[in-house]
Design a protein that fits this description.
Blueprint (H helix, E strand, L loop, with lengths): L9 E4 L3 E3 L2 E3 L14 E5 L8 E6 L4 E7 L2 E6 L4 E6 L4 E5 L4 E5 L6 E6 L8 E2 L2 H9 L1
Antiparallel strand pairs: 1-9, 2-3, 4-11, 5-10, 5-12, 6-9, 6-11, 7-8, 7-10
Bound molecules: dTDP-4-keto-6-deoxyglucose.
DTDP-4-keto-6-deoxyglucose (T46) binds next to strand 4, strand 5, strand 6, strand 10 and strand 11.
């Protein structure tokens, strides 16, 4: 977690199976996602102007996908920030442990699909940016 930087996070193009009836994008553990998928959740009905995130995880890895609409993910390793605009259901952002994230600029009706490597555990969160920054830079 300490060593990971924003450059260990990657934007991954997922397979898109296309036919005249539309598209399918599969997401499988240890194939498209480079970890065991233990949990799936999604953010939706985010009011205009609101943001999500505002924390880091100690162990959790995630794949974030704009299943519908678009939003920005600002990732931060305590030294460097990158902004990733997600707007296609076949593009995933892989976030490794030890990265602060803020999600902003949700378009109306957007859905952020998250595939996570662990079950929910509040002890895995770092919600204080000062503490996060100290941990990353000690
Ligand atoms: C991230 C973004 C994209 C649960 O009870 N179970 C769960 O699986 C989750 C994810 C949340 N919760 C509860 C815990 C909190 O009381 O829902 C509340 C809000 O959770 P959180 O602060 O994690 O919500 P977001 O939307 O700010 O962040 C979530 C992810 O946790 C986070 O890692 O990257 O979605």
């Amino acid at each position: 977690m300490k060593q990971n930087t924003v450059y260990n996070c990657s934007v991954i193009e997922l397979p898109k199976i296309h036919n005249r009836a539309g598209n399918i994008t599969p997401l499988q553990s240890n194939i498209e996602a480079p970890f065991d998928i233990k949990r799936i959740y999604y953010l939706y009905d985010v009011p205009g102007g609101e943001g999500r995130g505002g924390h880091a995880h100690k162990e959790l890895q995630q794949f974030l996908v704009a299943a519908s609409g678009s939003f920005d993910v600002i990732i931060d390793d305590g030294r460097t920030k990158r902004t990733i605009h997600l707007c296609r259901p076949y593009i995933a952002l892989h976030i490794v442990p030890g990265i602060w994230r803020d999600l902003t600029n949700f378009s109306s009706g957007s859905i952020c699909l998250v595939l996570a490597s662990l079950n929910y555990d509040e002890k895995d969160y770092i919600r204080d940016y000062t503490k996060f920054s100290l941990l990353k830079n000690e």
